[in-house]
Design goal:
Blueprint (H helix, E strand, L loop, with lengths): L2 E7 L3 E8 L2 E9 L2 H12 L5 E5 L4 E8 L4 H15 L6 E8 L7 E8 L2 H13 L4 E6 H5 L10 E8 L3 E8 L2 E8 L7 H18 L9 E7 L1 H10 L6 E7 H7 L12 H10 L13 H34 L4 H24 L7 H17 L3 H14 L3 E11 L14 E10 L6 H17 L3 E7 L1 E2 L7 E2 L8 E9 L4
Parallel strand pairs: 1-4, 4-8, 9-12, 12-13
Antiparallel strand pairs: 1-2, 2-3, 5-7, 6-7, 9-10, 10-11, 14-15, 15-19, 16-19, 17-18
Helix pairs in contact: 1-3, 5-6, 9-10
Length: about 500
Amino acid sequence: MNHSLLLLLSAHHLHAQLRVGEHITAQFDFTDSAADHLKLQVFLSAQRCPTYLLTDVIEEDFRLETIPYLTGKSRAALLQRKFEQFYRGTHFHQASVLQRHSDGRRDVDMLFSALTNPALLNPWLDVLWHSKTPLAGIYSVPHVSAPLIENHPSQHLLLISWSPISGLRESYFKNHQLQLSRLTPISHAMKFQDVVGNELARTYQYLSGLSLLPAEQVLDVMIVGHRDDLIALENNLSPSNEMRYEFVDITRVAQQLNINTPILDSDASQLFLQQLARARPHTQYGNAQHSHFYRLWRLRRACFWASGALFAAGLAWATQTLVWQNTPDANAIAALQQRTQQIQTQTLQLRQRLPRSEVAPADLRASVLAMQQLQQHSRPPEAFLTPLSLVMTHYPNATLDELAWQMQIEPPATADVPLKAATYLVKLTGYLDHFAGNYRAAFEYLTQFQHALTAQGYLVTLTNQALDVSASSQLSAQNNGVPSHLTFTLNLVWTPPL
């Protein structure tokens, strides 16, 4: 049996349900409070199964855009520019292909969408991260609801559903493809039929204002709710020449989806959770960081099945070897050899059917090459300290007090770009002796010392000196009296020669 954990997130509420196969075994609810966050972390720590997060929030934006047809890195760069243009303040974004034009440049119509309020998700995602939950993805109700209307004959369809913890959800589909979705919050005192009646006219005007609905086009409205609410709604709705209503009993939809949990009202949350469990969309709002523990979970399962297959193959080979050792017949030996070959072939086929690791071979190769290049481009301290030692020998009045260094490597823009040579940053702190109050001589001595370091290949920056050399003041010490020595600090940058 496949175990999974489904999470439904609204503005201030998280619903969790454990599933075994098609059956819901347990359900829990958590509020957006520190106490419930702690309860959720304790609950998640006891679960080690794939987890799917479904969001139903107001702060979800949709944009239709036509872009040139591109592939590979060019397409990825273009999409990234669009994300930065539309959704700079959030990293929960995705892009879906709607259609490709058949004429001209054969441009592509895209639907860009994003969860625009990261502060709403981050506290819950922090709990998931600290409990090491294998989160497979972050999805939203509008994207999950698309398969529910894929067999509907209408080309302009408005799907209306309701959730007591989220509100009234209105999703518009053109040619069975999601175009936009709106969520209207509701209070506990408002009834389902009253909210639907008030929002339908506004939504129709909104679609017409965006030119999504052609002129004089009748909008099909598919309303999913409980039978009692639908009867009351049908009696309250006035006939319209602009909209054609279709009332769908939520219990009938639940039967089609094999939902065993009784549905006693118009709450459609179970419909979307069930649809997410059955067929997850190809795109989602999560990234590689969010699914880190899920990839580890898959890797552990792959290792488990691979070890089981190898154990079975080894046991079969050992058994065949024992039989072969006790069977002198040449025909029996040939049969055993043939059987061994069959087992090896079956083992290879079994390993090929195992889940593949999320780490691509190309990424592994790039990591190894990066390590090799790092070893090739790094230098021992002698390489960049020896020239400094030579200069210090010729300038005995410059006394070293403290020396520190670090290596800095600039990562390449892409995996196929060679790693640049390491740069070494050296901080040298010291003081000048035997200057006898002659500040001008001390300044010239320090300047020559810097020029000598520059001649050895260092990029020198003076960050601290006990002399005031500004144009508006006389050459003098910054401290009062005649000190025994003058301190200075130099920052040196050394790059190995090519």
